[in-house]
Amino acid sequence: MRRRNKFDLYFVVFLAVITLGYFIYNRTFAGSKAITYYSTALKSYKASDYEQAYTEFGKVSSSSNLKQAALFRQARCATLLDKKELAIKKYKKILHSNAKTTIVPISRYNLAVLMFESGKKGAKQNFKTIIKRYPSSDYATSANYYLGLIELQSLNKYSEKRQKKLKERALVHFKNYIEKSPNGRFAINTIDEIKKLNIPLTNYDNLLIAKAYYANGEYEKAKEYFNKTTLSVSWADFAKNEFKLKNKEKGFEYTEKGLKEFASGSEPSEVYETIDLYINAAVTRKEGIKKLSSMNLKSTGADYIIHLNCSEVAEKNTREACYKNLYEKYPNGQFSADALYNLFLSKYMQKKYFDAQRLGILHLKKFPNAKSSPAVTYFMARISYKLKHYENANNYYKQVLANFPDTYYAYRANYNLNKEDGFLPFLEITEKPVVFPYRKSLDNNLVVNLALLKDYDLVEELCKHDKFIQSWIAHEKKNYTLSAILARNAMDELEIKPSFEDLRWRLVYPLHYYNIVDKVKGNNNPIVLQAIVKEESHFNPNAKSHAGAIGLMQLMPQTYNEVIKAYNIPSNLDSQTSNILAGSYYYASLKKSLLNRDLYAISAYNGGIGSVSGWFTRINYNDTDEFVEQIPYPETKEYVKKVLRSYWMYGNIY
User: Where do runs of H (alpha helix) occur along 47-137?
Assistant: First the structure.
């Protein structure tokens, strides 16, 4: 009996193994077939053969995680073939599947739009469901536009009293739309619908309309509606609109009056934007700042004007007094961290290390994650080192590397911790391709699989607010400049930076044209040249600056021609290779003339060799840090930090 039970147990285990093996085989086989069908269907779709694409998408197995995307694509095919009923059926199938993928919200929205266009009753309820379930989404915003239109359908069937209520409800929906999306694709249509209502509008209603016109570049129409609001509430909008209309005097008038009388109740960002437009419209930037400073303002924007004025002051003692005044007046204001940092750095440069240390401790306590925090932490290390507190110095360096790994100051901290590695520790890198920035996605890897199948349009639609994915799509479409900028902005928004192995870093620092850079580097460090290409042109081979600099390495035509002639660069090279080769020779010549140091060559690449040569005698410095922080040209100082930061990041990522 015991032997029989043992045999039964073995048999059950055997059946379980066979069943599991069959399941795994079937799942794998079905999955591979689904990928084939989807890929074939996508080719037909891109070729505008929607009938064939519909059929092929229909072959994707229900057990595949691509099924939702296949149903969505079938609905799109049906819509493009003007088979709305069939499209509605497919969207409903997605919703009834109880799936929780990113395809569900857009499917419900598309379903609601098709129902609205077909005159079906379910449209209103679906739009309301979108607003309830996805209130912060673009679909919810657009749903308001359609709900406004639905309220006005068959208006003439109702009594005058009922019509008034429906119009009021429609107005609420229309206002919700233009408030959330003033530059949206329905914004102008929404304004036209509001006008048709013939309902008296409040100041706020007129302001919403004016802002929507402004956002869409309709400045004359915006002016008409701004004039229907009160200046006390909308002075900043009045001023901005006048500047856009090139009416400088009116813009100046509104800005000055607003700053004097109404700014205290205004949003700071609105005030700062208006101040910037005022300064840009002045004869010179310095004159604009001077005029605003002379107004001795006390309300919102006053701290920003002082901040701007401090940055324009050339004389060191006067600048220090300016920042001291800014910090003491606004110790918790938006610009107080920067003011305190400048006071701290001023004391450091004067070698008043104990005063600087006191200010540094205060800064790091009050502003641990400010833009200036990496610099303060780094110079606290330098102070500790100069005071022979070596352990403290190393701890501060390590804090920079741990908390601010992607900054210029992390590069400098690493150098000071590991001086045996030299000023430029990275000499070569291993090339790695830009790939989809995530290894997994929250929807059973649907987005990841769509990315692998190169369904860029659907991935873009499903992930429109993920800048890293938008960056990757731009990269795949060969728009390298947009890709790098989107990725950089997305990374800047992350409070905690990922490790250097994270795939997103490759989007921020891609190796475009590195094969050329490494080939023509000569005696230059190729990673430095790559960093220059990134910061100069963001990988746009057709880039042209306002000054006339051209190409990936942004050489002035005269410089480019001189280098071509001096080094006999062949004329049959493609423009990218020619530009990088000329840039490499030019950089090498700068370096040779400037004590063979990359720091000075990078400075001269932006600020000019004559300027850098002059700084050797004009700037009182004892080390690299003191030189960089005292570069007289703000643009060049930032350029040096950006290039060395990019160099540091390339070395770590690759």
Answer: 50-57, 67-80, 84-96, 103-117, 122-133
Domains of the chain as residue ranges with CATH: 322-412 (1.25.40.10), 446-508 (no CATH), 514-653 (1.10.530.10)
What span, in angstroms and rounded, lies between the C-alpha atoms of 601 and 284?
A: 31
Give, as one character, the DSSP assignment of residue 440: -
Q: What is the mean pLDDT of residues 84-94?
A: 97
CA atoms in the 13 A half-sphere facing the CB of 346:
18
Give me the torsion for CA of 412, 415, 417, 420, rounded to 10°.
-170
What's the Cα-to-Cα distance from 268 to each of 253, 303, 619, rounded to whole Å? 19, 10, 37
Q: Give just the sign of the alpha carbon dihedral 470, 540, 628, 548.
A: negative
What is the spatial distance between Cα 555 and Cα 267, in angstroms, rounded to a whole number?
42
Best CA proximity match to 526, nearest among 636, 651, 653 = 651
The pTM assigned to this predicted structure is 0.89
| Residue 307: Cβ within 10 Å count | 22
Neighbours of 447 (CB within 10 A): 25
Reduced to 3 states (helix: H, G, I; strand: E, B; else coil), residue 283 is coil
443-471 pLDDT, tens digit each = 778 999 999 999 999 999 999 999 999 99
Residues 526 and 517: beta-carbon distance below 8 Å = yes
In the structure, what pLDDT confidence band is assigned to residue 200 with cuts at 50, 70 and 90?
very high
What percent of the chain stands above pLDDT 70? 95
Alpha-carbon distance 160 to 47, whole Å? 52
Q: Are 94 and 78 in contact (CB under 8 A)?
A: no
Q: What is the mean pLDDT of the chain?
A: 93
Nearest to 361 by CA among 339, 379, 334, 336: 379
What is the distance in angstroms between the CA of the first residue and the CA of the last residue of the chain?
66
- CB neighbourhood size of 368 (10 A): 12
Burial call 262-287: b when 16+ CB within 10 Å, e when fewer: bbeebeeebbbebbebbbebbeeeee
Q: CB of 364 within 8 A of CB of 377?
A: yes
Q: Which of 538, 564, 565 shows the shortest CA–CA distance to 553?
A: 538
Question: How confident is the model at residue 25, as a pLDDT?
Answer: 39
Consecutive H or E run containing 276: helix 268-281
Place of tokens 């507190």: 389
In angstroms, rounded to a whole number, what is the distance separating the alpha carbons of residues 113 and 132?
Answer: 17
pLDDT in tens, 211-240: 999 999 999 999 999 999 999 989 999 999
* pLDDT tens per residue, range 175-185: 999 999 999 99
List b or e across 513-536, with b for residues whose CB sees 16 or more CB atoms inside 10 angstroms.
bbebbbebbeebbbbbbbbbbbbb
| Closest C-alpha among 608, 602, 551 to residue 581 | 551
DSSP state of 419: G
